[in-house]
Amino acid sequence: MIQFSNRYIQLPDVLWRRQLPTPLRNPRLLSINHPLADALAIDADWLLSPEALSGLSGHSVWPGAEPIAMKYAGHQFGGWNPDLGDGRGLLLGEIIDSLGCRQDLHLKGSGPTPFSRMGDGRAVLRSSIREYLAGEALHALGVPTTRALALVGSDEPVQRERRETGATLLRVANSHIRFGHFEWLCHSQQHTELAALADHVIARHYPECLGAEKPYAALFAAVVKRTATLMADWQAVGFAHGVMNTDNFSISGQTLDFGPYAFMENYDPALICNHSDHNGRYAWYLQPSVGFWNLNALAQAFTPLVSVIDLRTALEQYEPVLTQHYDGRMRQRLGLTTLEAEDKTLVQAWLDLLRAGDKDYHSTTRQLGMTRVEEQLKAVQQDWPNQEASATDWLLRYQARLHRERSVEVDRQQRVQQSVPAYVLRNYLAEIAIKAAEAGDAQPLNTLLAVVQSPFQVRDEWSAYAGLAPAWGRCLTISCSS
Ligand code: AMP
Ligand code: MG
User: Fold this and answer.
1) Backbone torsions φ then ψ of 301, nearest 5 degrees
2) What residues are annotated to the active site?
């Protein structure tokens, strides 16, 4: 049983519509997320009960839940769209987790809502599995993200490029409020409601702003900082989001709405993971600037609440915060503990080397933390056949840098191995789990889930998950269709 404590529904009713879920045909529970259930103080055994499945599949509404579809808008691929909102998911309500923090429970794939436009309100099993895995993978890498507590499959036919089946995902987020919520209230000139939403966001996510001289300006500045940090996290862990529309940007700074995302494999900053992104608007190397673009759209929406000068001042903090956080994470990946002015170029030279050698972003860096640099210098001809000179040069620089900080070798190796995952959620691994689940076997999915939840700890039985993608897995195309 889940104890709800719903606050969002107390906001002005222009922001939401009551909506019941539409039942899925022949639902079955495919997975529950045990560590998350524990963190939420939800009894995992209860999640296995018929009552739980009934609520997870839209056949009933759990006591205390008050399902609503949220209204928002947003900029999609740079174009303004006022007609967005939860078109295939419902906020069931809020709960208090084991740390006393408020969390949203959102049932994604639960059927049509007043904001479905021409859509069927469904989410296919394939994309639901991808979202489920991505949340866990990012969380384990220390990146703020929405997660999911349970995944349900069904016989519900859903038409996409091919006929697929519908699924639901019980998504858990500290907020489902998007940049697009603010954009919609501003553009539709509902300024009283805009202030009410800002008050709600301050109370729930940024209580430290309450005491500020100008709370709304402080709120915007805090959102700038959290977004900057998130973008730095994505770049450092090699995550490509794929659909960075403002309706997919959370006001609380969590990663939200996983579509055609990817984790970087062979290092290529020009990576465009979304097959439908023909112009490369959301190419990986552009993510930090898109984050800034989105904050500018949000700033526009804040103009009824905050002066332009205060908005500009806040936006000026974006780049320094992002850079500082990114530099810190990248130093950690190289096992460095101190800070030197030259580190930026050392990191960049490493990335250039990976690019030139067409090397895997994660495993090559982890390799750096497996043996002494002297050993790596001896093996350079074998490891870097076409980059022997530049790799030698880089390793010598790195070695000198380690000497300067009096690096202790065992500690360095441990630091790298705790910062760079041994197991990466590669698209081909997700694909194998998806194919099996579509054929009725959820075991590969549940094993992969456990693997991405513990990406740093090597285990013999997980050796099949540590390898690079086979040839078939390198050319998977993932579109927006979900
Ligand atoms: P997304 O690309 O998943 O972020 O979705 C963008 C917008 O389209 C959101 O307002 C979604 O709720 C809506 N949407 C996406 N897919 C569907 C669908 N199958 N049925 C109804 N609405 C959808
Ligand atoms: Mg979305």
Assistant:
1) -70, -20
2) 247
- How distant, in Å, are the alpha carbons of 55, 59, 62, 399 from that of 22? 11, 7, 14, 61
Q: What is the DSSP letter of 456?
A: S
pLDDT along the chain (482 residues), means of 10: 96 98 98 98 97 98 98 98 98 96 98 97 98 98 98 98 97 98 98 98 97 98 99 98 98 97 97 94 98 98 98 98 98 98 97 98 97 97 97 98 98 98 98 97 98 97 96 85 86
SS3 letters for 267-330? CCCCCCCECCCCCCCCCHHHHHHHHHHHHHHHHHHHCCCCCHHHHHHHHCCHHHHHHHHHHHHH
Q: Give the Å distance between the CA of 245 and the centre of ligand 1.
A: 12
Residue 73 Cα to ligand 1 midpoint, Å, equals: 12
Q: What is the pLDDT of residue 94?
A: 98
Domain borders along the chain are 8-173, 179-328, 338-417
The best mutation among 19, 71, 88, 124 to test binding of ligand 1, ranked by most ligand atoms within 8 Å of the C-beta, falls on 88
Please identify which residue in the block is written with the tokens 């465009």.
272
Gyration radius of the chain over CA positions: 23
Q: What's the confidence (pLDDT) of residue 141?
A: 98
pLDDT at 1: 86
Cα–ligand 1 centroid distance for 88 (angstroms): 6
Query: Rounded to an integer, what distance in angstroms lies between the CA atom of residue 213 and that of residue 465?
Result: 52
Residues framing ligand 1 (Cβ under 6 A): 84-88, 115-116, 119-122, 243, 248, 257, 259
Residue nearest atom 13 in ligand 1 by C-alpha distance: 87
Per-residue confidence (pLDDT) for residue 201, from 0 to 100 = 98
Q: How many CA atoms are closer than 13 Å to the CA of 309, on its beta-carbon side?
A: 1
